[in-house]
């Protein structure tokens, strides 16, 4: 399964190579905007995009980005809960 994480394009870093800086949940990372490039790359600054393995794959609206980030946080919390339950079960099995 491929997972795209919403990131906001904050600046164009290398127009010749179609590279931009994206803010992904507070982490700034250089990504390729080749898949979403427009004739005027500056139009992408401020846009939200789904980022996957260093590529901005598609432009999304801010509402969709927010909903996706909330869902991803929820999945992370669910995973942490499952891991804690597994650790608790292992501890109980080890004391019997």
Explain what you see.
The protein is an alpha+beta fold and 96 residues long. The protein has one domain (5-95): SH3 type barrels. Helix content is 35%, strand content 34%. The chain is built from one helix and five strands, in the order E-E-E-E-E-H. Strands 3-2-1-4-5 form a five-stranded antiparallel beta sheet. Strand 4 (48-52) and strand 5 form a beta hairpin. The longest helix has 34 residues, at 62-95. The mean pLDDT is 88.
What's the quick description here?
This protein is 35% helix and 34% strand.
Task: Spell out the key features of this protein.
SH3 type barrels; alpha+beta; five-stranded antiparallel beta sheet; elongated; 96 residues
Fill in the CATH topology. Answer: SH3 type barrels
**What radius of gyration results from the CA coordinates?**
18 Å
Average pLDDT works out at 88
Tally of separate domains: 1
- Structural class of the secondary elements? alpha+beta
As a percent range, the share of strand residues is 25-35%
Helix count from the secondary structure assignment: 1
The number of E-state strands comes to 5
What's the level 1 CATH class? Mainly Beta
The major β-sheet equals:
5 strands, antiparallel
Any guess at the CATH architecture?
Answer: Roll
Low-pLDDT windows of residues: none
Shape: elongated
Strand order across the largest sheet: 3-2-1-4-5
Distance between the termini: 39 Å
Series of H and E elements = EEEEEH
Helix content: 25-40%
């Amino acid at each position: 399964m491929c997972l795209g994480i919403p990131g906001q394009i904050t600046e164009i870093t290398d127009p010749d190579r179609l590279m931009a800086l994206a803010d992904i949940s507070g982490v700034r990372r250089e990504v390729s905007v080749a898949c979403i490039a427009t004739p005027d790359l500056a139009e992408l600054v401020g846009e939200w995009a789904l980022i996957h393995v260093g590529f901005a794959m598609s432009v999304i609206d801010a509402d969709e980005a927010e909903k996706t980030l909330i869902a991803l946080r929820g999945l992370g919390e669910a995973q942490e809960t499952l891991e804690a339950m597994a650790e608790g079960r292992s501890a109980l099995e080890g004391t019997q």
